[in-house]
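Sorry to interrupt, but I need a hand with the structure work. Please put the record directly below this note.
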Amino acid sequence: MPIDENDLKKIVEEVVKNLGESGSSAPISSSGPVFETVDEAVKEAKESQKYFQELGLEKREKIISALREVSRINAKRWAEMAVKETGMGRVEDKIKKNILVSDKTPGVEDLRSVSYTGDKGLTLVEYAPFGVVAAITPSTNAVATIISNAIAILSAGNSVVFSPHPAAKRCVQDAINILDKAVVSAGGPENLITTIFNPTQESTKYLLSHDKINMSIVTGGPAIVKVAMSAGKARKTIAAGPGNPPIVVDETADLAFAAKEIVYGCGFDNNVLCIAEKEVIAVEKIKRQLIEEFRKNPYAYELNSKQIDDLAKIAIPEPGAEPKVNRDFVGRNPSVIAKAIGLNLSDEIRVLWAETSKDHPFVISEQLMPVLPITSASNVDEAIELAYKLEWENHHTSGMYSMNVDNLTRMGRRMACSIFVKNACTLHGLGLGEGYSSMSIGTPTGDGITKPTHFTRPLQCSLVGYFRIA
């Protein structure tokens, strides 16, 4: 059902008015949506979900439209808050992310019922909510994950209790406060979206094991994914874990275009996205030409071998499949990172890059920094195999620049990633191109790019002998 623009305008105006009356902060309140304890947040979310489910799909669509609109309006505000609080990323890129997930996260339309008819009658499959979803969110994509998860989870008919990374709790609480007001202004119950005032590791573990939680989604590193998979009673869990996206460039590629796209994708929001380009594998025949294209890019700064080695020692103390990285460098501007090795660079620089060996710490480790290693392989077959090795079988994201359909097909099949992008930066696999968007990509649990149906239980109803009219 299309949402009347005048109704939507009134909803947004009411939300803005409420914010003006209550201020911009999200203090602890006995009425929410920011609560003192996990138990309070879960209890209120559970009560709200019961009412919400009974409202029906038309009202739900209206609520989701309100969430999208207030998220667009506050995209800049939340981007600025996130950068100020976490020190990670770039405001202009976080604005784009916030708007992207506001517009392209699927909504209620994703819940398409399916029917089967035949001589023996009719079977109908519909999608029902789980109830209360626990959502663990990272500091890297703090508010964008809240927007995306909230739209998808509520579209499915659930309520959600968020446990944000402590380093991003204030901007997340502000977003939840505003989103909650949007729900109420659109005719929904308060506290469909809740959180706690002081999230910690202990409170997060407690939330994941809470007996009133019906489903969990965790967006973060391997440590929190392991906690989620082993917490509490048996329940559905979506784990959006790490990746180390390799990009292969073969001898048929448009090298100028490839270099431009790779720099843009790697430098976007200072590389905090798990899908962002992490290492480049060039076929030896075109490696020197590709490097020359990187050198032409005014937003990319080349490091020599000593500089990249020195930086690796500081930035990645323990490289490998599950690396320990220096959090002071995660998501920071290249100019900030470069100071650690004695360089003074402009903030206009988007990416630090260097030619490296195949086993360099920056090649083998997911590091969420705008630092790009370029290595090589003797031919495309070796490049694909190296990409497979460097991705650590996360099956998360990979990309290839090639005009050879056979090469593109072989890499796509070999990598079997949730996201595989051909001849463009990997952002195109997350809704910047065609398709839909999400900030939670459930690779460890095989869910891929999450959408509302991932937060539902399919219910099958059969009526034997009737309702077949053909």
Residues 20-25 have pLDDT under 50 and may be disordered.
